[in-house]
Design brief:
The chain has about 200 residues and is α+β, with helices and mostly antiparallel strands. The protein has 5 helices and 5 strands, in the order αβββαααββα. The model has no long low-confidence stretch (mean pLDDT about 90).
Length: about 200
């Protein structure tokens, strides 16, 4: 088995780590919480970063009119099969050994990853802007508009006395590495063909 095929095979296998490790983490820090509270976002669920974190987040959200953290989302049913299918396709392509197909897999994975990030942004936007009219506490911006509580897509953001931190975690790093390995396999295959020709 050539080096390029092995690299492609490893890359296709790496994306399955999304079933083992969380993809993203959102953490809230505030003076009233000595320890930050947060949630880990997986490909098929959302879990506490530490015990009872989601319960505490939902409690805070209730007062400002935000929805509870969902226990189930359509994405949890759509994304897992896509990842499995793309992983299997990638492994098959590794044995086929066609560098153009490596590049095609890379492009498709980048497009799927971009679509996933956009979907995540839309969820965050709705989560932070679609507030209940019956909220116990209502904050407004200087111009009198209802305040939004959308966490950042990536990075840190101050929301009232909270600092919201949104960063990729282990699963995302495996996904990124797997995608990049397919591109490396493409160039390695190209080099192998030049050597043998």
């Amino acid at each position: 088995m050539t080096k390029s095929k092995i690299i492609m095979l490893v890359g296709a296998f790496f994306i399955l780590a999304l079933f083992v490790f969380p993809l993203w983490n959102i953490t809230l820090e505030a003076p009233q919480y000595p320890d930050p509270i947060g949630m880990d976002i997986w490909i098929n669920k959302i879990t506490d970063h530490e015990p009872n974190d989601i319960q505490n987040i939902n409690l805070m959200n209730h007062y400002v009119g935000m929805k509870n953290i969902p226990e189930d989302m359509k994405e949890f049913h759509v994304f897992p099969p896509i990842v499995i299918i793309m992983s299997v396709i990638g492994m098959v392509l590794a044995f086929v050994g066609n560098r153009k197909l490596y590049l095609t897999w890379f492009i498709v994975m980048v497009l799927l990853g971009t679509a996933g990030m956009y979907d995540f942004y839309l969820w965050e936007y709705d989560y932070g802007h679609n507030l209940s009219e019956h909220a116990a506490i209502k904050f407004t911006s200087p111009n009198g508009e209802p305040m939004a509580y959308q966490p950042p897509l990536i990075g840190n953001k101050t929301i009232l006395n909270f600092v919201a931190k949104s960063w990729p975690t282990t699963g995302a790093y495996f996904l990124f590495t797997g995608i990049m390995l397919s591109l490396i396999a493409f160039f390695a295959s190209k080099k192998e063909k030049q050597i043998t020709s």
